[in-house]
Amino acid sequence: MQPITAEERHRAGEFLHANLNARVTPDDWVQALRVPWDVEQPNHGFMLFDGDDVVGVQLAFYSERELRGRTQSVCNLGAWCVLPAHRLHALRLPKAVLAQDVDLFTDLSPSGSVLTVNERLGFRFLDTATSLLPNLPWPSPRRRERVSAEPARIMSALHGRELEIFLDHVAAPAAHQLLLEDGAEHCLVVFRTDRRRSLPRLASLVYVGNPALFHRMTGPFGSHLLLQHGLPATLVDDHLVGRPPRGSIRVHWSRRRMFRSESIDPADVDYLYSELVCVPW
Question: Which are the contacts of 48, defined by CB distance < 8 A and separation ≥ 6?
């Protein structure tokens, strides 16, 4: 086993393309690991070998965040895939990541048996009750309301931490950003597109800067996604917006999300700076 270095990113991408998700090309995986925000990355995760052959990969995405008044190190566990013949050694990969000195670990897309494994490794669940919000055609918004994807307009409206979030994610391969405005009030929204079950491609929220304004503007927001992106509905986690949006439908197949930390409160955990904004699957 060894860390995934910059030189080994393509081997990791080829392995994941061949064994985990063929829709994501090796180059897409490599691009995802070149995170667009400024951070010193100790590695990109770890790879397991049998001789010279890669038999397992665990990706890791690093960032530094201002949480509770101080800079905290964050590691998001990304794709984890081990060939069946080597599953007895699979746990060596996440354990290598978790052995590092990091304040907060997240796993934002675990599935199947990974959930149980994560619990054994000390992870806890976030409250990810999810609603499906239909994106419907909406009458022209009130004069004060506007939905914009124009980078110049978004940058002119934001400042401080929210401007930093926008700039850090503007080149992230899977992140789409919108600005909701109502007069002088604004809300930065970051979303990705997702496949769930047999449904068409959906929008999935990653970050909502002003939940109160988001709830007031779900109509214009959804209409923009439908008309500009062809997305018929949006998946909305209570963890991001506090409560189900009006007109949404509760779903029972929400994606579980997990974290591990001795010092970070669940309310401070978001989905930014992660595999969710870097890997378009």
Answer: 1, 54, 55, 56, 57, 82, 86, 89, 90, 92, 93
Q: How far apart are CA 235 and CA 228, in angstroms?
A: 17
pLDDT of residue 231: 97
**Using CA atoms, how far apart are residues 11 and 6, in angstroms rounded to an integer?**
10
Residues in the chain: 281
Q: Where are the strands (E) in 30-117, listed by range?
A: 45-50, 53-67, 70-82, 104-107
**Distances from the Cα of 1 to the Cαs of 50, 93, 136, 269, in angstroms?**
9, 8, 50, 30
Sequence-ordered list of residues with C-beta below 8 angstroms from that of 105, at least 6 positions apart, any chain: 74, 75, 76, 77, 97, 98, 123, 259, 260, 261
Residue 268 three-state SS = helix
Residue 98, φ and ψ in degrees, nearest 5 = -70, -15
The pLDDT value recorded for residue 149 is 96
pLDDT tens, position by position, 65-96? 988 788 999 999 999 999 999 999 999 999 99
Amino acid found at 142: R
pTM over 0.85: yes
